[in-house]
Task: structure prediction
Amino acid sequence: DLKGADFSAANLNGANLSRAAAQGAGFAKATLAPVNMPLPNGQPSGRLWPANLADANFQDADFTSANLHRANVLDANFTRAILRDAVLLDVDLSLAKSDGADIAGAIMRR
Result:
């Protein structure tokens, strides 16, 4: 249960928050971008592992200026979430519920 938790400015790159109950949580300036997947020898593989936010509840959460580049948001709930100035590059919000979400100033491209 992550309801109301504060992850402001946290590095959550590649994190698995699928099915999380994070209503009202704070993710302002947090980074939920993909991480590079290394080969067994530690060398770069060229593969990226995105943050997984699938089926999570972020209702009323604050993602102001957060980086969600390439995050998996399938069936996530961003109802009334604040996504102002967030980086949403390669994020398909049509796969999530985002009624009343504030995306003013968000950087978006798919």
Notes: The two ends are 31 Å apart (CA to CA). Residues 19 and 87 are 22 Å apart (CA to CA). The longest strand covers residues 44-49.
